[in-house]
Amino acid sequence: MDVKEAYLYCEEVIAANSKSFYRTFSLLPKAKKKAVWGVYTFCRTVDDIVDEGDNPAVELENFKQEFHEFLRGNFDAENPMWVALADVFERYAMEAEPFHALINGQEMDLTIKRYYTVEELLTYSYHVASTVGLMLLPILAPNKTQVLREGAIALGHAMQITNILRDIGEDLKIGRIYLPSEVMQKNGFNEEELYAGTVSPEFIAMWEEMAELAEHYYRSAFETIHEYPMDARIPVKGAGLVYKEILTTIRAKHYNVFHEKHFVPDESKKAILACL
């Protein structure tokens, strides 16, 4: 498979699975945009193994070995993800560590179904979300990777906590509770009420405490946004602002996260991007 075909496949993957990221990162110059598609497809593949695989533990271990071989220059030349990623690694000063950490984070989903402290949740969120930002830094801001590292980690935390607050109902269906029990207890909300789908004042207080944490990390991430080169600044900030808007959308729908998955309307996305 040639590289052009591989990138087209990766673009189809992100367009089908993440309309928000696809819209915002489509603003990048062509070379950077294609590289982002390649990295996204790697992340999506790992995620799908855990969420949809027939034997995820074995499949994830096999994938881990495939990645080790990839780093040594051995990969399936007919697999578009590896073909695109090989081109990305050739063109940019990519680091392997965030890729390894992402795989480790997905392994956590196979064994950990409950989080007790905010610190535990942030460790998880670093592995499954902040790592993605670290993967992208050599592409988006090749000369500023160290300056932007903490901001990329913060944006990952912000987006992952947003995901968690949006997907409470879906996660319950598969037996996962990402809301830290210490925050639930602090606000007088228990697991029985969570499984009952009770949107009480206590639930809202607990949800808002976690939303405030996410908003803290968005603010932290945006503090260094000016360090990105111009061609990447708007896509990165746009992605963050569109994701942050999910919290506003949930509030407007009276915190109904048990029976509905909330998305930012296209008009809102356009309005956010138009203001950048």
Automatic annotation (TrEMBL):
Keyword line: Carotenoid biosynthesis, Transferase
Domain of life: Bacteria
Signal peptide limits: none
GO biological process, one term: carotenoid biosynthetic process
InterPro entries in the cross-refs: Isoprenoid_synthase_dom_sf (IPR008949), Squ/phyt_synthse (IPR002060), Squalene/phytoene_synthase_CS (IPR019845), Trans_IPPS_bact-type (IPR044843), Trans_IPPS_HH (IPR033904)
MF terms in GO: geranylgeranyl diphosphate synthase activity; squalene synthase [NAD(P)H] activity
Pathway(s) it belongs to: Carotenoid biosynthesis
PANTHER family for this protein: BIFUNCTIONAL LYCOPENE CYCLASE/PHYTOENE SYNTHASE
Protein name per the record: All-trans-phytoene synthase
Gene that this sequence comes from: crtB_1
